[in-house]
């Protein structure tokens, strides 16, 4: 570490990965809480000899070696740290003042200091006191996946036969030669690695993935009592809700129920790409819903929520972070948190290749939300926010501006997706036609204008002759 680079780190101020301690004379004992928290979270930089604002105060030069010796001894003391961890401490001089810098990496194990586990949040260290908090720490550090947890006491009678039949129907639509079509229910589970042997007890049984995909409500409630998916519409009543549906069934049944809730409360927004016509609403929100179902950490009691507001759609679910913070196309690292569950959805053709969901969200959301992009945050809670601009809320000027922005975005995306130029030109003419009609809608009759405009958007081939029929 060079003084110049360290100054850059200090300038970023305290945060999730940066901590300052004074330690002017004696070693600040709270530094060990920060070390433990960094080991348990995602690592970070620690500077001794600086105040909370990053101002270099310095360490008494006569005390530097004593502090180095104390930290080296304490980090290897199993009565303080369990398990112990080796760190490299680096004394430095900045602006004529002595400081100690060291980097704490993220550990593959869960660490405690004086018998207490610590975690890092923003610029603070906090104790993990409850059993659930400590369990989440060990799950995050574990190399095994909770979807592979074995339940020897469960059998085929605890699963729903009709869910297997529905799965075969979906698979047959996508691939009539799929091997699962000729297999029994149990053979499908074994082929999908949903019947495994517990490595500790040696007993064979259904996995959590099998229960979540095919289990009855009663079976799921026995295994995960807190499991639920909360679908909310808060367009008018933002304190409570306009509509609510609590879903507790298995994931293969939950997916169509969630899509039905979306279609119930959000109008369809057709879009033509090349020669293909599809719904932007369905294309975007399908990926959001699949992300909730496939990547959620089911061992945690935090409920998954999908909320429709007047100007946005927000989903939240518990997560084992792979990366931290804001996610965009440049920082996205596709990683299936539950590969067994993802594999079953893939067999139906609903889920495509790894990473396609995020790419679709960033590609189509600007077309759906007047040029705005999705906001995705990955931490312990995985949060997706899709901006939403209702078509009837736009006046004619805003509509024209939105169309121009949409056309520019479409042209950029069309370089790789549109191959039929004639069809594209025809689509643009149709769009101009509908814009022209939209500008002539009566401003003094907002209900008539809204219904007519939605009819125009829903049918690109809407004619003037049909105008009276829809009003």
Question: Any overview of this molecule?
Answer:
It is a single chain. Helices cover 39% and strands 20% of the residues. It is of the alpha+beta class. It folds into four domains: 139 residues, Methyltransferase, Cobalt-precorrin-4 Transmethylase, Domain 2; 78 residues, no CATH class; 164 residues, Heat Shock Protein 90; 78 residues, no CATH class. The strands form five sheets. Strands 13-12-16-17-20-19-18 form a seven-stranded mixed beta sheet, covered by helices on one side. Strands 1-2-5-4 form a four-stranded mixed beta sheet. It has a four-stranded antiparallel beta sheet with strand order 3-6-7-8. Helix 9 packs antiparallel against helix 10, helix 10 packs antiparallel against helix 12 and helix 13 runs antiparallel to helix 14.
**Count the strands?**
20
For the record, the CATH class of the largest domain is: Alpha Beta
Question: Termini, distance in Å?
Answer: 71 Å
By secondary-structure content and strand pairing, the structural class works out as alpha+beta
CATH fold-level label of the largest domain: Heat Shock Protein 90
Characterize the largest beta sheet: strand count, sense, and whether it forms a barrel: 7 strands, mixed
User: Please, what is the average pLDDT?
Assistant: 82
In terms of per-residue confidence, which ranges show pLDDT below 50 for 5 or more consecutive residues? 393-407, 416-446, 456-471
Q: C-alpha Rg, in Å?
A: 28 Å
CATH architecture field of the largest domain: 2-Layer Sandwich
């Amino acid at each position: 570490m060079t003084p110049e680079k360290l100054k850059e780190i200090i300038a970023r101020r305290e945060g999730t990965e940066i901590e300052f301690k004074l330690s002017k004379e004696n070693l600040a004992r709270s530094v060990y809480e920060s070390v433990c928290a960094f080991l348990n979270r995602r690592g970070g930089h620690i500077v001794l000899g600086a105040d909370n604002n990053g101002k270099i105060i310095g360490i008494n030069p006569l005390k530097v070696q004593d502090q180095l010796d104390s930290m080296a001894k304490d980090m290897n003391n199993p009565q303080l740290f369990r398990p112990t961890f080796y760190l490299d401490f680096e004394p430095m001089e900045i602006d004529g003042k002595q400081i100690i810098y060291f980097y704490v990496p993220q550990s593959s194990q869960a660490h405690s200091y004086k018998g207490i586990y610590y975690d890092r949040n923003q610029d603070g260290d906090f104790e993990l006191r409850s059993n659930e908090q400590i369990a989440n720490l060990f799950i995050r550090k574990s190399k095994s996946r909770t979807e592979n947890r074995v339940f020897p006491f469960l059998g085929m009678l605890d699963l729903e036969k009709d869910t297997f039949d529905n799965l075969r129907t979906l698979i047959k639509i996508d691939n009539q030669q799929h091997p699962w079509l000729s297999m029994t229910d149990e053979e499908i589970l074994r082929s999908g690695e949903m019947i495994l042997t517990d490595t500790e007890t040696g007993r064979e049984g259904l996995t959590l993935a099998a229960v979540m995909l095919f289990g009855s409500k009663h079976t799921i409630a026995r295994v995960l009592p807190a499991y639920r998916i909360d679908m909310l519409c808060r367009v008018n009543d933002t304190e409570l809700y306009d509509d609510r549906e609590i879903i507790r069934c298995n994931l293969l049944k939950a997916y169509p129920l969630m899509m039905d809730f979306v279609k119930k409360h959000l109008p369809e927004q057709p879009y033509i790409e090349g020669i293909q016509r599809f719904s932007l609403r369905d294309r975007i929100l399908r990926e959001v819903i699949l992300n909730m179902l496939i990547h959620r950490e089911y061992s945690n009691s935090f409920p998954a929520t999908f909320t429709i507001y007047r100007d946005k759609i927000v989903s939240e679910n518990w997560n084992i972070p792979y990366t931290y913070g804001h996610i965009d196309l440049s920082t996205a690292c596709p990683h299936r948190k539950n590969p067994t569950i993802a594999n079953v959805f893939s067999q139906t053709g609903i889920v495509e290749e790894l990473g396609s969901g995020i790419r679709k969200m960033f590609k189509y959301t600007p077309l759906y939300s007047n040029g705005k992009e999705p906001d995705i945050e990955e931490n312990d809670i995985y949060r997706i926010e899709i901006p939403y601009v209702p078509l009837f809320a736009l006046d004619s000027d805003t509509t024209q501006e939105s169309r121009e922005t949409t056309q520019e975005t479409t042209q950029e995306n069309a370089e790789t997706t549109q191959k039929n130029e004639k069809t594209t030109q025809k689509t643009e003419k149709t769009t101009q036609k509908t814009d022209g009609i939209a500008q002539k809608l009566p401003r003094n009759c907002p209900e008539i204008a809204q219904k007519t405009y939605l009819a125009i958007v829903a049918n690109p081939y809407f004619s003037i002759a049909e105008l009276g029929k829809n009003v």
